[in-house]
Amino acid sequence: MIVILDGPINAGKSTVAGLLAPRLTHAVHIEVDHLRHFAGGLTLEQATPYALADAAILTKAWIERGFHVIVDWPIEPAQTRGFMTVASEFGTSLFVFTLLPRLEVALSKRGRRHLSLGEKARIKAMYGGMYSGPVAGTVIDNSDQDPNETVALILAHIDAEARRWRRETGPEDGSEPVFTLTDQPAPADAATIRQRIKEFNDSVSEHHRVARRTGKEPLAALMHDPRGELIGGLVASIYWGWLDLDELWIAAPWRGQGHGRTLMRLVEETAVKRGCRLAQVRTWDFQARGFYERFGYTVAGSMEDYPPGHTFYWLRKELPG
Asked: Which of 162, 25, 27, 133 minimizes the C-alpha distance to 5?
């Protein structure tokens, strides 16, 4: 089996590969970055094709010896051909996983790695270039996963594919599904279900693919007293041209003085400048439905007895412009 871990700089490829190799029986980890340093006199762009070609040659050698091979490098779909040739020649499986955390996560300090300004610039260029469109293999947004969770998800995907291939070769005895009811689902099972939903959404919705790459754009208006203490604020986010109002709070002594309207105005005006044309908010009957309605929001949906004895509301508004 050949496993390629694709993804931008600081996506966690090497860390995940190092954890994945011991979980696979008889596996080696080939770091293309180490191979690239053999061509010390070449630029990164000049050395990369040679390093990938060398990685494919080494992959073939280790597959011949009966090992699984894990390769990690930011790889474009066309650059997988050498590995596909090896997989085809030896009749082994080839898996490509693209680790693609949100941009702000990739730019942050992860583990012991400190990014240079040059690396940060390359990461931004990657997200605006090779990772702005279709990418290789199965995409995993590991923004909110620790490396072990990502490994578990990869192993679950490999296992699921193996079971699928076995099903396609013909039915097995006792092939009816087994249903299990549990109060404590395994983290890998829950992660697999979430990943499959993400993959389906991405396959049919360009908006989901874009949001997955860029993440939500945070926005907040804060209110402090003269001493600098936080006494109120509106936390929101922007995606798909929508302003999503998440949390609005004002300390009791400061309520009823129009500060809520000021916070709303600041956030909405900023959202419009950033291209938003619609806004939404979720609230309960014991919260601020009337406040939002006075601000032009209308009820788009509701659920009674959620929680029992109360009603949950979803409101929306068309923003000006």
From this structure: 27
pLDDT in tens, 286-320: 999 999 999 999 999 999 999 999 999 999 999 98
- Rounded to 5°, angle at Cα 78 from 160 and 101: 55
Domain identity same for 118 and 266: no
Shared domain for 198 and 301, answered yes or no, is no
Over the range 233-258, which residues count as b (16 or more CB within 10 Å of their CB) and which as e? bbbbbbeeebbbbeebebeeeeeeee
How many CB atoms are closer than 10 A to CB 22? Answer: 10
What residue type is assigned to position 64 of the chain? E
Helix (H) or strand (E) holding 279: strand 278-284
What is the rounded average pLDDT of the residues 80-97? 89
Same structural domain, 7 and 121 = yes
Q: Please, how many CA atoms are within 13 Å of residue 1, restricted to the half-sphere of its CB?
A: 15
Tell me if residue 164 falls in helix, strand or coil: helix
- Domain containing 204 equals 2-214
- Check residue 172 and report its DSSP letter: P
- Cα(257)–Cα(273) distance, rounded to whole angstroms? 27
| Co-location of 245 and 119 in the same domain | no
> What pTM, to 2 d.p., does this model score?
0.57
